[in-house]
Amino acid sequence: MNMKPQEHQKRTRIKTTTPTILCACVINPRRAVWHEVQNLKGTGSIMALAGVRVIELAGLAPAPFCGMILSDFGAKVIRVDRTKVAMTVDTQARGKQSIALNLKNPKGVAVLKRLCVQSDVVLEPYRKGVMEKMGLGPDDLLKENPRLIYARLTGYGQSGSYAKAAGHDINYLAMSGLLSMLGRSSEKPYAPLNLVADFAGGGLMCAFGIVLALLERSMSGQGQIIDASMVEGAAYVGSFMWKSRSLGLWNHPRGENLLDSGAPFYDTYRTSDGKYMAVGAIEPQFYQQLIRGLGLDDADLPTQMSVSDWPQLRETFIRVFATKTQAEWSQVFNGTDACVTPVLSLDEVLSHPHNKARGSFFKDSQGEVSPRPAPVLSRSPAEPCRSRDPFIGEHTRSVLKEYGFEQGQIDQLLSGGIVECNEAKARL
Ligand SMILES: C[C@H](CCC[C@H](C)C(=O)SCCNC(=O)CCNC(=O)[C@H](O)C(C)(C)COP(=O)(O)OP(=O)(O)OC[C@H]1O[C@@H](n2cnc3c(N)ncnc32)[C@H](O)[C@@H]1OP(=O)(O)O)[C@H]1CC[C@H]2[C@@H]3[C@H](O)C[C@@H]4C[C@H](O)CC[C@]4(C)[C@H]3C[C@H](O)[C@]12C
Fold first, then answer.
1. Which stretches of sequence are listed as region Disordered (predicted)?
2. DSSP reduced 3-state for 362
3. Which end of the chain has fewer CB within 10 Å, C or N?
4. Of 81, 169, 198, 389, which one is the catalytic site residue?
5. How many CA atoms lie within 13 A of 380 on its CB side?
């Protein structure tokens, strides 16, 4: 996909035309939506989730990612921030709007209900019971909007003895069973950043659940509750680990198997300039190309799958990789099937020729690099917003107006401290 510059206007243009779609979304099933969407063709590419309105209650990392995915693919995502907070911790706010709302006040709760009545999705990242305590539980909201998709993204899910416990990625990963498999031989388990539970098993799985529920709603006309547990999401992402045990892939202790850094042909190696190469030469024909590229003779080496010889083979690979720079090894293996690639840093990915050719990473208006939304849809690709992230409460006034609040009501909410507006900060 050629990433067209974003074009906040373009998104805005699409969005200002979406109320028609929304009416269709709310009243009629899918066909009507498509009819309206077809009518908009020619006004810019229509993203897959155009017309979908999402209310995202501000959270730490997984829910913001979920909201960003929905926004990247065209949904209108309004993040509900707290009042009296100077700075957001949401670094995944691309394309979102922000309203600052005090939910500790019943009037604030009433505002949120009104937003949810006119929305398709509410996404909440709090501990079990928090939303109910505020009078914003699924019973309260679905009663008023039966088409609402109520997504609950938590660590342990809505039931079970851990449901109310605090936790973070590493705890959920531990409870999923996967953490026990991660780490090098003879070392303790090691969490790969907070990628697996927070983002893959959490934010992404929740977004998938929301899209499924939207699809189902287009047939049934009904909303539903999504109970997205990061323990279960992570475990599900890791289904292969359970399903492949019958193959004997995990028979050895942690860090001594084929895919967990046990095998020397599935590992990373330091180069002479202190960088690294990643080696994934599993199949014999690819392994042969690795050996050739390294300038080794197969006759001098133990056989590839002789597990007891892996430590010796690894020492050989370590020694050889240390003789050239990363760039030199990249040149050696470029264009081969040896499955050897440079380990790129976050700063290097943008300029790698392959990534560059595909536009896999892009710069926003602040010059910040981030990954392009994946996957790429041929007719309705995501068009990530390139403008800066919203300030807390930047869109309070405009969102309230859009959701039908009168000017007088907005003024009262502002003067009562129920909502806060930061338009001025946005103009600075
Ligand atoms: C980048 C860091 C984030 C790391 C991610 C980490 C690894 C994770 O794993 S995130 C996954 C966490 N788990 C979940 O999300 C599971 C579900 N949620 C929960 O279990 C809980 O919410 C919880 C355990 C995460 C938090 O529990 P807590 O008790 O705090 O909250 P809840 O019980 O859920 O209740 C919420 C209460 O809030 C009230 N509320 C909600 N909205 C409103 C509203 N609009 N108005 C009023 N009130 C509201 C609600 O009513 C509840 O109230 P009650 O309690 O009374 O019921 C980042 C982690 C820390 C960051 C740093 C830090 O913030 C300091 C700096 C801040 C600065 O601004 C930026 C730099 C910082 C260093 C900052 C940097 C990073 O962002 C962090 C390191």
1. 357-390
2. strand
3. C
4. 198
5. 16
Please write the tens of the pLDDT for every residue from 154-168: 999 999 999 999 999
Place of tokens 């050889």: 320
Question: How many whole angstroms from 58 Cα to the centroid of ligand 1?
Answer: 8
Q: Report whether 50 contacts 14 (CB < 8 A).
A: yes
* DSSP string for 155-168: SS-SSSTTTT----
With contact defined as beta carbons under 8 Å apart, do 72 and 66 qualify?
Answer: no
- For 188-329, list the strands marked E by DSSP: 224-229, 266-270, 276-280
Share of the chain above pLDDT 90, in %: 87
Task: Give the chain's length.
Answer: 428
Rounded Cα gap, residues 188 and 12, in angstroms: 50
Q: Which of 107, 123, 126 maximizes ligand 1 atoms within 8 Å of its Cβ, making it the mutation to test the pocket?
A: 126
Distance CA 149, CA 184 (A): 42
Q: Is 125 in the pocket of ligand 1 (CB under 6 A)?
A: yes
Residue 367 region by backbone torsions, left for phi larger than 0, else alpha for psi between -120 and 50, else beta? left
Instruction: Provide the 8-state DSSP code for 342.
Output: E
Active site residue 35: no
- Specify whether 252 is catalytic: no
- Residue 419: CB within 6 Å of ligand 1? no
Outline where 94-167 has alpha helix (H). 106-117, 130-133, 138-144
* Cis amide leading into 375 (omega within 30): yes
pLDDT band for position 33 (cuts 50, 70, 90): very low
SS3 121: strand
Q: Which residues of 28-54 are buried (b: 16+ CB within 10 A; e: fewer)?
A: eeeeebeebbeebeeebbbbbbbbbbb
pTM of the predicted model as reported, rounded to 2 decimal places:
0.91
Check if the beta carbon of residue 110 is closer than 8 Å to that of residue 140: no
Distance CA 144, CA 139 (A): 9
Six token digits for residue 171: 């705890």
